[in-house]
Amino acid sequence: MTPPTIGDLNPEVAKKYGLDVYQAGMLTEEVSRWDGRVTMVTFVAPPPREDGKSDPIAYLPPTYRKHGIVDRDHRNRVNVGETWLVEVVEKGTGAFFLIPLFRLDLKSLLDLQPERMKQLAEQLASKNLELGKALADKIPKAPSPEVVKELETARSQTNELRTAIDTLRKEKTSLETKLEHLEAQQYQSRLVTFIAQRVAPSTSATKAGSHLQAAMTTSQQPPSEVVDEMTLRRVDQDICESKALIHNAYEIHFTADLYRVVLKPNRGGVPCKSGRLVVQGLSRVDSSTAPTTYNMAWDERFGGFVAYIGQPSGTPLKATEA
Amino acid sequence: MLVQESVQDRVMVFVDLRNILSADLVRARRTQGWELDLVALVRSLPGNRRLVGAYAFDTLRRQEDGYISRLSLVRALRFQGFRVITTTDEPDEPETQKEADVMLATELLVQAYHGTYDVAIVVSGDRDFIPAIRAVQHLGRRVEVAALQGTYDSKLVESADKFHIIDELPVLRPMEVTA
Fold first, then answer.
1. Residue B57: which CATH number?
2. Which residue of B32, B172, B177 to mutate against A (max A Cβ within 10 Å)?
3. Which of A322, B11, B79, B96 would be a feasible disulfide site paired with A293, CB 3.0-4.6 Å?
4. Contact B170 A254 (CB under 8 A)
């Protein structure tokens, strides 16, 4: 068997347990007197004996020619294959009894020598560099400062983008509001254009052009020339007509003060044909049978035309006789 | 107007039916052959804003013969999309409107608390609603009041964020003549 080696055992420990003999040039010679010495041995199975005993024995360093047996009081503590620090008791000549002091295994060695543990770890690490790398790849790594910095940058960019999105949403809402107003204006413009085109045959080409131009540049209110054209003409008791009434059906309501009638296009069930419709209830407000023309205006609040059928003090437009 | 209205505003209308239907002007118009179109009224009040709901509150009265006044109106309003909340007085009970007023105030507050509207329009001239209106305003909602001329209390108008005069709104239609 291969004799146990001590290697770079701590010199102080070696001296304490009498292991310093190896470093004193005694490795090749037999120890003259073993009694009381402490040494490191590995117990092995004894050669077969006639009496059948099989207590482990250990060959003594440095020559391993002599062997000792475990002291009878400690036989149950020792097994074959274990390495122990033992005290050698010599009785007579050539009879050695080994008193086991403590078992030397990896744990005890490491416990005894923190420095040694460090050296072993370093050696293991150097010899198993690839294994270490493979393991290192599997261990979660703390983010590097560069990654942390990138993360912070990304977070700040995200916040900026969120702010930008909020701003854009607000702008979108604002634009939708403007769009609705513009659509209302566009409808008004188209209406004015339509009226201008319808009155064009009865007017000069220049006037028709001015109508169209005015219609194109119209803002909240239609051009004054066209406003003059926006009238509701009563042709019979409850029958009215207007060039502005271009839709097929209207919803008609009177105000509670009976000064106005509101005609909302594309709602309600009052049919309108060729700009003519029945304003039921008008004769109750205006009992005269003579044809009358009422001024009319587009009211965005109601989404319809407001015709001024009464004579309230607050009426913006004055009714005119046809 | 100090606070700008937006087409995005969600408007909810709360109609005190008895208050508006018992107004002198409405009664006078009825005798002249006109009827108040509550749907047209509710549609006109928000203007360009978004109408998200309309409530009507009323106390109905059961007569001796079992006939319940305004029941047909209530059914018609329900059919047209109103949420109508009513109570019914029995013939032997004293006529009272307070329960309907409290129901309106409660619904006004509950809907404000749930954030279902931005603007509430209370169609009534009754000053009993002033505390409820203030509470709703405290929750960050705007409250407008709509009433007919001569039927509203000035303190109610002062507490509102905006006041609508119903007389100027297109709400009347001729009654259909039945043979």
1. 3.40.50.1010
2. B172
3. A322
4. yes
